[in-house]
Amino acid sequence: xxxxxxxxxxxxxxxxxxxxxxxxxxxxxxxxxxxxxxxxxxxxxxxxxxxxxxxxxxxxxxxxxxxxxxxxxxxxxxxxxxxxxxxxxxxxxxxxxxxxxxxxxxxxxxxxxxxxxxxxxxxxxxxxxxxxxxxxxxxxxxxxxxxxxxxxxxxxxxxxxxxxxxxxxxxxxxxxxxxxxxxxxxxxxxxxxxxxxxxxxxxxxxxxxxxxx
Length: 213
Prior knowledge:
alpha/beta, 6-stranded parallel beta sheet
């Protein structure tokens, strides 16, 4: 890895250097996700997308043969990020699709916040391929899903070995927020509170503010 690439991988996530990629969060595929509670999976996906919307991050959504048994993209993602979905006709690895890869390239951003269903295929394959092409990929495993914990853990290990940064959506939010005093700090705190048990902390903070009454 050359010095230029090292600097890209060491650089922090910011609202100005990241793009979010949501891969194959399709209703048929989501039925197979059993590595965490299905309601938690949906909550995490909504949290990740709400964060992206709050920060106005460029987003790329793709689906594999949505007219078939995989089904359409889950409505929550379309509600929050828009319904411009890149439909793939057969490529299992989304990175092999020229429209998907081209949409990422068009943003000019080298850091990809990526989630996919299922974790060990739809997330892992393009994450590893993107790293090989010089991108810094943050694989959001709790906004993804797969058959069981063993499969998820194997995918996490393989991605880590390939240089993918395995992470969670709340950790991504915190890194992008950087400082509670940032322009979007309180809004992002609200997103975190709405989708996690951090709500109690956030509510306590709001209640202590002088203008809360």
